[in-house]
C-alpha cells in the first residue's frame, strides 16, 4: 500500500480565522444561555423554555405549529433560537424502507450524511460530526475527500432531532416509534471536534425540554484513537459507550490503515480504551472493518485477542464488532470472504472475547459514509 500522509494529522481541528460560523441555535446553548440570549435581544427570557419544548419535547420546527407563542413575537423568537441549519438534498432507502440515508447541505454548502436504521427492538441514527474527515484512512470514503470543517453542536444535534421526528411521525417503515440510539459513526472524527461533540452529547442526554432526553448509555462515540481526547472524555461524567476503530492489532499494518497510529500506537490506544472502561464502567466496543487479505488473517485474530487480553484479568471490558467492509468503487480495499470472517470471529470467541459480526444495513445503496457526498 502507498505511504499515507502522517505528519499533518490534527489532534483537534481548529477553524480558520474569518470563516463564517453556522447560525446560532438553541441546541448550541444550555438553558441559561438560551434565556440570556433572548433577554439580550429584548425578548422575554421565559420564551426560551417554550422554544426548547417545541424543539426537543414536541419535535416541532415549523413556527406555525408554535401556537403558544404570541404572533407578534413568533418570527423574532424563531429567528433568534431556531434558524434553519441544514437542508436535505438527497435521500436513499433500503431494507424495505427501514434504512434511510440522508445527504444534507449545510449553510455554507458543506455536505454531510446521516443514516436512520430501524430494527425490531430499537431505532438507531448514525450521525456526522465533521464535514469530511482529516484522519486520512485510505479505506474510508470520507477520508478520501479530506476535511472541510467542524460541525457546530446544533448541526450535530439537529440530525438526531430530525430522525426522532421521522420516527415519531411514522415516516420510517413500521409506523410511529421512538428513536432510541445514537452513534457518532458518520462522517468525521468526533474527538477531533471535541467541544462540539461533547456539547452535542449533553444536549442529546439532557432531560426534555433542556435536551432530547436520551439515555447516555444509548449514545456511542467512535474514534480512531485520539488518546488524549479518550482520556478527557473519560472524565466528562457522561457514561457514553466508547467505540474504538482499531482495524489492525499490529502497528505495522495500523500505521497504514489508520495513520494517526504513528502518533499513538496500538498499545497506547488500547490502554486508553481500557482506562476509559475503568473510569466509567462502560464496556468498550472495538470496531474492526474486515478487508480481504489485508487485516482478516486468522493470525491477526489471535494477535488481537492477545493485545486486548494484556489489559487486566477477564475480558468483560471489551466487545469486538467485526464489520464487513462497505466496498468503494475503484478502491483496492474489498470485503473479506465469508469463510475468513467466520474464522476470525470463531478465534476471538474461542479466546473468550465477546465478538459479534456487525449487521450491515443499506448494502444496496451507497452504504459507506461519504459516498453520497462524493457523488454529489
TrEMBL record:
The active site is at residues 113, 369. Its EC number is 2.1.1.192. Residues 119-364 form the Radical SAM core domain. One of its GO terms (molecular function) is 4 iron, 4 sulfur cluster binding. Keywords: 4Fe-4S, Cytoplasm, Disulfide bond, Iron, Iron-sulfur, Metal-binding, Methyltransferase, rRNA processing, S-adenosyl-L-methionine, Transferase, tRNA processing. This is Probable dual-specificity RNA methyltransferase RlmN. PROSITE patterns: RADICAL_SAM. Reaction proceeds by a ping-pong mechanism involving intermediate methylation of a conserved cysteine residue. S-adenosyl-L-methionine binds at residues 188-189, 222, 245-247, 326. Specifically methylates position 2 of adenine 2503 in 23S rRNA and position 2 of adenine 37 in tRNAs. It catalyses: adenosine(2503) in 23S rRNA + 2 reduced [2Fe-2S]-[ferredoxin] + 2 S-adenosyl-L-methionine = 2-methyladenosine(2503) in 23S rRNA + 5'-deoxyadenosine + L-methionine + 2 oxidized [2Fe-2S]-[ferredoxin] + S-adenosyl-L-homocysteine; adenosine(37) in tRNA + 2 reduced [2Fe-2S]-[ferredoxin] + 2 S-adenosyl-L-methionine = 2-methyladenosine(37) in tRNA + 5'-deoxyadenosine + L-methionine + 2 oxidized [2Fe-2S]-[ferredoxin] + S-adenosyl-L-homocysteine. It is found in: Cytoplasm. The gene is rlmN. Its cofactor is [4Fe-4S] cluster. It comes from Nocardioides currus. It is an enzyme of class 2 (transferase).
